[in-house]
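Following up on my earlier message about magnesium ion. Here are the inputs again, as you asked, copied directly from the submission form:
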Amino acid sequence: MNDSGGPTRVSILGATGSIGSSTLRVLTHNPEQFAVVSLVAQRNVERLAEIALRTRAEFVAIADERQFAALKDHLSGSSIEVGAGGEAVIEAASRRADVVVSAITGYAGLRSTLAAARSGANLALANKEAMVTAGTMVRAALAKGGGALIPVDSEHAALFQSLWGQDRDAITQLILTASGGPFRTWSKEDIQQAAPDQALKHPNWDMGAKVTIDSASMMNKGLELIEAQQIFDIAPDRLDVVVHPQSIVHSLVAYHDGGQLAQLGVPDMQTPISAALRWPKRTKTSVPPLDLAQYGSLTFEPPDRDRFPCLALAEAAMRHGGAAPIAMNAANEVAVRAFLDGAFRFGGIPQVVSEVLDQTVAEAPVSLDEIAVIDADSRTKAHAAVAKFSK
Ligand code: MG
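Thanks, got it. Here's what our run produced:
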């Protein structure tokens, strides 16, 4: 229920992706508690239409304009409104809702995230690149709109919950846990020579291809450090990473009395999503209860920045600030795509990111247009670097 006693009105940007699917599982598990406002997908018309009909959404938007006719076709005879293209995506993000789940992957999710933030709805944020590239702007948009930022990324959800109601002045560190990914125990040489099918095998989490590759390189943790810095407005030197292969402890907050608070659970995105939908109320999910005795032991180890140079590159970009995180994110998106397309082995990803960061001046952008220029410029440099390092 929302404040006015009706069901919580939810919009999902990225409805056909991994986070979108987990969100729909939470909604399906609690049909009385939620009503769907808008749904957005990039190009998967069949799935989008199926979800729209099942959830009785008010409005659906497909980002790829060429799919407009197909979407209209699928939804003919229903009362669901249909839109296509960038403006329709912004409209979907802006419609009156209680919470907008922002789960479009990559820099592509920035404009719709900002629109959702301005709308006054709570922002259930799964898109980490929006905070990495334009964190200040997202926070300003939320302040203007009046909604709250509730992170969905599992680590940030854990930090958010472990900070809730606590003494902010007593925080000494935010500690993000990392699974270590599929290459955690691999040698440096083997990691550099890894192929896409090896990098796409994540041990614990079932996620989209981009974030799975980022997990294998630990760039995901680097992006998450910057995301945490932006969400919680905390200094870079108060952020740390610990590798925790079982992915049960989702992150920790250390306080100056020596204590730490953590949030634990079976690794399933339904848990952080359900918390974000009606926070501070919790919503039931189909996630099995965590039985710690069954796990027996939880282990922790320091991250290895030599074998995982993307983590060190991201930390450097975070400390530089300004254009550096934007350039790093753009270079990484291009490099991951090139790796998946077979341009080079896994070791090419940090090479491309490093090459682009070396050419980046760290002046802080002040507008969305300036961010777009840095992003586009960095992608051009990254494509040149891809060509240089291609086999
Ligand atoms: Mg995460």
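One observation from looking it over: Residues 157-268+289-389 form a domain with the Rna Polymerase Sigma Factor; Chain: A fold (CATH 1.10.1740.10). Hope that helps, and feel free to reply on this thread.
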